[in-house]
Amino acid sequence: MSSVAPFPGPQKDPAAANRAVPPPQAVQTRVRDPRLDFYRGIAMFIILAAHIPGNRWAGWIPARFGFSDATEIFVFCSGMASAIAFGSSFDRQGWWLGTARVAYRCWQVYWAHIGLFFFLAASMAALDLYGSFDKSYIGSLNLHWFFNNTVQQLTGIFTLTYVPNYFDILPMYLVVLLLMPLMMGLEKAGVWAVAMASVLIWLTANPYILGLGPNGVSLPAEPWSDREWFFNPFGWQLLFFTGFAFMKGWLPKPPVSKVLVVLAAGFVIFSAPFGSGKVLGWVEYWNMDLADAIRETWKPSSEWREKTDFGLLRYTHFLSLAYLGWAAAGEGGKRLIATGQSLAARIWAVLLQVVTKVGQQSLAVFVFSMALARFIGFALDQTDRAVMTTAYANLVGFFLIIGCAYGAAWFKSQPWRAKK
């Protein structure tokens, strides 16, 4: 629809009228903010390294240096991406169609979870059946319960009442997505209503904050035990909707100041030995008395740093890291964008493009990497797991998830369709 107002009265000279219309202005290309997909892409590489069994590189992932880890990056960035993908649907097309789009995404995530489980269960069973190895790969994923009582556990898999530990991120993400229509409905009452609902739901999973004891609301993970989902969606939704709120504009952009940078960095650094056994070991090497004093805080603070229910210390630690990442990237992510023609700039441009592509295809890459990690672990079991062998295995894994990202993007572009 033209933005030029119609001329009053009849136009007797079309040519003159056309000359009177100002020439259209050149459309300015909008540079995509690289921060969301870049950091989400980084999380995908970390998640792969973290899930390779016995991986040396897993000793250097963020989880070894503080309360939070790559899971927080994935959930927070997923909330931001959901605000773009689904929040705009609610705004443009209304609550019902927005909910329908969320339901369709939940359907995709559900079947991604089911497919991942059965692919890995069948693969591990094949290794045990046809190989002569000194370990059970079914047992490595604790799937004996499934194969020993398939009728009951098959029902549990499809109803999400049986969620083995390795397969717990997508069910959590699925439930969090299902909360989105509720939050978008509450938005009509005000952003305060959304914030209150998210905090109250989080408190049901973390009642210790109110002095109500350690046992909060959770979902059962096994029919034969009291184990809950390793990622309690009622706790983790707080982080998801924090990212959602920032991208949706419900929360203002945090100002970049030296004071806040120092405070965030100080919390990340000085909290490290309180949330990391690795860092505590370093402290112990330098000062045994200090290490013992820190170790005494671990038990009393266990609920505050718990991963399952997403304890408050994890939330604070991740927000501190996220703020540092926000400040480091610069306004609009300008420091991530390669400028100049130097060799370093060109290399950085390629790396940025690759990591961003991985972040853009996070669901496909995540599912692929979870399966790939087990096969890399199997391959490493057949070696001496030397430093160079492990490095080679990780780099091959990184190369393969990059290929998965580009392949998923190619299929999504539907190149077989006729172009107009």
UniProtKB/TrEMBL annotation:
InterPro entries assigned: UCP028704_OpgC
Matches recorded under Pfam families: OpgC_C
Region (Disordered): 1-27
UniProt entry keywords in alphabetical sequence: Membrane, Transmembrane, Transmembrane helix
Segments passing through the bilayer: 38-58, 70-90, 110-131, 191-209, 229-247, 259-280, 361-380, 392-411
Name of the protein in question: OpgC domain-containing protein
Organism: Leisingera caerulea (Phaeobacter caeruleus)
